[in-house]
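Interim report to the steering committee. The following record documents the input for Acyl carrier protein (201 residues).
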Amino acid sequence: METPKTYISELTTDLNPCTIKVKVLRAWCYREANMQTTHRHFEMIVADEKGDKIHVIVNNGRLTFLEKYFKEDMVVLLRNFSVIPNNTSYKYTKHPYKISYDGVETACRSNTFDADAKPETVNRVCEIVKTQLALGNDSKVEPDSKFSALGADSLDTVEIVMTLEEEFGISVEEENSQNITTVQEAADLIEKLVEKKNAPA
């Protein structure tokens, strides 16, 4: 079941679980002497489309994961995190809470802060993904479902993108296709390209 999206200003300890769409404003990491060379302590400051900011502590210290998902100026969806009091002596933001987050399979990239795609577009993408991956009727494909988690390899993803291009009459550039990892990302990009295609010259 998809968790509801909310804004940073609405976050409290009673609101879990939820999903927020945020831009990474600042990110930093450091490694202690006793840590593996592939691991780091990692923290960041993020902001939502309303401009509110919050401090995020990522407990999953895998460097490859951090470098992939949390680059500055990248927009990401975060979910399944804990909201904890921001009661340390030094505060990075004025928000009364901060986020403690393990990062494992609970983040996905998003292109912009644009409004989410219409439900009918998302549903059609879900149907196409299920067909392309030959998933059974009992298989759940939701907006935040990752193609890789559904069993898709790189070739499967290419075929999904090609089918979406044919279905919606659009052309997805290779650079954009590499950023499509979830149903929601695909649906958002489709509507953006359709709107661009239909815009007056």
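Residues 119-198 form a domain with the Non-ribosomal Peptide Synthetase Peptidyl Carrier Protein; Chain A fold (CATH 1.10.1200.10). The committee is asked to note this result when reviewing the revised timeline.
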